[in-house]
Amino acid sequence: MTMRSALKKNTVVFLPALAGLAMMGLVGCSASGSVGAQEAEAGYPSKPVTFVVPFAAGGPSTVTALAFASCLEAGLGQTFVIENQPGGSGGLAMQDVSSAKPDGYTLTLGTNGPLVMNPMINQLNYGIEDFTSVGVMAQMPTVLVVGEDSPYESADEFFAAAEKNPGKLSVAIPGATTSAAIELQRLHEEYDIEVTAVPAVGNAEMTTSLLGGHVDALFITDHQDVQSRIEDGSFVPLAVSSPERADWYADVPTLAEQGYPELVNAVSVFGVVGPKGMPDSIVSTLESQLKTCSEDSTVIDQIGEMFVPAEFSGAAALDGVFADMQKLYEPILGQE
Amino acid sequence: MDAFNNLGLGFSVAFEPMNLLFVFVGVVIGTAIGVLPGLGPTATIALLLPITYTMDATSAVIMLAGIYYGSMYGGTITSVLLRIPGEAASVVTTFDGYQMTKQGRAGPALGISAIGSFIGGTVAIIGLTFLAPLLAQVAVAVGPASYVAIMVLGLFLVTSLGTGSTMKSLCMAAIGLLLSTVGQDPITGTARFTFGIPSLLGGFDFVAIAMGLFGVGQLLHSLERTEKAQAITTKIKNIWPSRKDFRDSSGAIARGSLLGFVIGVLPGGGGVISSLASYALEKRRAKDPSRFGKGAIEGVAGPETANNASSTSAFIPLLILGIPSNVVLAMLYGALLLQGITPGPSLIEDRPDIFWGVIASMYIGNVMLVILNIPLIGIFIQMLRVRTGILATFALMVVMVGVYSINNNPFDMWVVLIFGVFGWIMIKTGFDPGPLVLAFILGPILERSFRQSMLISDGSFGIFVTDPISATIFGVLAVFLTYSFISRRRRAKAAAAPARAGADAQ
């Protein structure tokens, strides 16, 4: 898909490029997009790259983007400017980037909410097909945790209680349109286990609500803050949402092991994506540098060892991840 | 005592030349962006975040914290001089501060704000030093049901604050609440009242609305007036408040310090609510409440003290619990994460240098701010000497740049302009934008907390009675409403009686 559109682009580029050889400067203006793109391809990157983050500054997305940006800068010799554009639940950022020139100088952080779910729920004129995937920076599973004084000491006990009293247990989730929300909905629809999902804003609010005993559990995106609470004992993890157990919670079962084999999708993926039709050479330059960075010890330290996948996933793999998400969310969220 | 040893460690960190420099840089930047309307601490820290990442962790946090509390000092200046609140917390300051400027008392208004801010800030730091771990436990007890009660109390204060008629205040508060419903539904995620405009999915930006209604509205209004009328306000008198000013505001400062400190600890509390509460308290206590909104110095001193106290005590939930209570602190949190430090219960033990270093730097920063501000006020007041046309144009430009910088979205600039025209119409028709803007801030928290409470309680209102904080607040509100209803009737009767007596005498 990406390949074909890139090829089409190149044939279109070819003719004006030939004609342009003689009168480069003048004609170059009208065809500047295409000629410029080819020239830029060779020396990419020759000017600063804008990296749009579709969330407000300060969250895990910004931390991830900044950590990778400084490594990419070092590797590619150009500045990567991080621009936070949180408007429209990330929809504005994605819309802007999808309509930017596919020259590799405008990139963004592609992730579950803004990239895949938002266009399904709201009227936005982009979809996953309007982007070129580059590779994965980080991924974070969602983890079901209870407080230290909780009567539920294991996932078994928790789900047994939920089954007995449908809707009685309250579980805070990071927002209404998150993969965590969808997984809880599927738990109800496919496995007939009903808990009351309480959408909150961000990890901080969720943390307070569990510490203060206002909800029974959290289905929270795993991050450094959650980890430090698990370490000091104020949170007890019951289950993780990833397909396999996480190395750092070796004793914690997956939801799949608990008897919900379908519930393996509440994993936030932070990928690098650009507008549709980015030239292959630029994608592979970025992809290989991204791979180097994902093995860089400074980057790993900043983001957290467990969140940077040990095995790097490149453009093709990321395409697959987003396509799977699309397939999964469509029947639940899709607009008629 | 332990706290003194710790503080000693803190000061030894804060007095390192490099850190001393960053306290200074922080408070200077903070004051400057506070003065420039639109460029609030949020936008500034967002811009500086990538730079801090190369700095030493302690220095970075010291600087960012300096920007935050420095902007609280700076934000006052435009609120008082131009009626443009730089950030939410200084909306309340415009009520009496701008009136004082119109009366030629801009000097004392700014002077008392700087002094109040210093005292409030210092009281809060002392509290932070000794009470932090204790208060952190109280903070988590505040759940959704308690928030509903706190927000209802806030709305109650908002409508009773208005300088005009209660009816007009109620109307404005209602419009503010309605505006706050634009955007995605907090529970289901569906779009509401967005008319297919993607920029509205996240709702209106608070800064854009406040800048429009207060700032641009006021600018348009000031352009209408003749140069001659404007000239009167440019007389500058003593900055140092008179003995009478001190006497009038000392109580307000003392109460503001305590109130601000307590409210700042609540997650989601901080700035606005503390200045609101302080203003309401002062108005209630005043012998002659009608002076409020007409340039009462207590109405400036109290809220300014309270917002500085709360911006300092807001560090308690951040550093002790790892819970940022507002956007600015969320960014500080991000800055710490970038350095590989996770703020949370273990921070005091793991990194005492950061924890106590930052606290000690706040003592130093507050001293620097008061030294910087008192003489600088004279310079800031010179702004008023500039011809209205030039000043207004310049202010409008800074507002536009500032509002764009928040979300990098040109849509917000249109919001400012459109609300600017509304603001101008409101000034002409005697509607106060204060209740609208404040209700707009409280609305989303009220809605979310209420719906979270309903989800948790399975639709039963009992949760507001079983939650101790909410029960207390609603109880007090009920008693107060009944009392004021009865006393108003009694007063009406009393007023009717002498009138009749007068009629008889004729």
Could you explain how this protein is built, in words?
- The complex is a heterodimer of chains A (336) and B (506).
- Chain A is an alpha/beta fold.
- Chain A has two domains: 2-38 and 46-139 and 268-333, Bordetella uptake gene, domain 1 (D-Maltodextrin-Binding Protein, domain 2, 3-Layer(aba) Sandwich); 140-249, D-Maltodextrin-Binding Protein, domain 2.
- In chain A, 46% of the residues lie in helices and 18% in strands.
- In chain A, strands 1, 2, 3, 4, 5, 6, 7, 8 and 9 form a nine-stranded mixed β-sheet that branches.
- The longest helix of chain A is centred in the first third of the chain and has 19 residues, at 2-20.
- Chain A is globular and about 65 Å long.
- Chain B has 506 residues and is an all-alpha fold.
- Chain B has a domain at 2-142 and 203-409.
- Chain B contains 22 helices and two strands.
- In chain B, strands 1-2 form a two-stranded antiparallel sheet.
- In chain B, strand 1 (183-184) and strand 2 (191-192) form a beta hairpin.
- The longest helix of chain B is centred in the last third of the chain and has 38 residues, at 468-505.
- The radius of gyration of chain B is 23 Å and the shape is globular.
- The relative contact order of chain B is 0.18.
- The interface between A and B is large, with 60 and 56 residues.
